[in-house]
From TrEMBL:
<dbReference type="InterPro" id="IPR011333">
    <property type="entry name" value="SKP1/BTB/POZ_sf"/>
</dbReference>
<dbReference type="Pfam" id="PF00651">
    <property type="entry name" value="BTB"/>
</dbReference>
<dbReference type="InterPro" id="IPR000210">
    <property type="entry name" value="BTB/POZ_dom"/>
</dbReference>
<feature type="domain" description="BTB">
    <location>
        <begin position="1"/>
        <end position="45"/>
    </location>
</feature>
<protein>
    <submittedName>
        <fullName>BTB domain-containing protein</fullName>
    </submittedName>
</protein>
């Protein structure tokens, strides 16, 4: 696991038994720890993108899948481009498929919005 590697390979963590996670907000780290200890999450809807990122960083595949599902459930036209970018960054097939489906269903409407330029700039959306 990532934490095993951190404790075995890092002198600072080995000497202090402390891992500092500076790249994520406390509530995101709290949800990751909740998941590690209980295999449950609580109310990640508002932070699902950040939970996806931390799950990817620490190779917590099931937490990553839970976050991905949460992002799919709250997917709409206003956040589809942002979520599509997340799906590419973190290699999330399900989220990417949800985004592509929503884009295809609403292409006529989206073509009239400024969001369309963002979507078109995502190269893999066209392929």
């Amino acid at each position: 696991s990532v934490f095993y590697e951190v404790f075995c390979n890092s002198k600072e963590e080995t000497q202090t038994d402390v891992v500092e996670i500076k790249d994520f907000r406390p509530e995101v780290v709290r949800e990751m720890l909740r998941y590690i200890y209980t295999e449950n999450v609580s109310n990640i809807q508002n932070i699902a993108g950040d939970v996806l990122a931390i799950a990817d960083r620490y190779k917590l595949d099931r937490l990553k899948a839970i976050s991905e599902r949460s992002l799919c459930y709250s997917l709409d036209i206003m956040n589809v481009c942002e979520r599509f970018a997340l799906s590419e960054k973190y290699s999330t097939g399900t989220l990417q498929e949800c985004c592509q489906e929503l884009i295809l269903e609403n292409a006529a409407w989206l073509a009239k919005t400024k969001e369309w330029k963002k979507i078109c700039s995502c190269t893999s959306i066209v392929t």
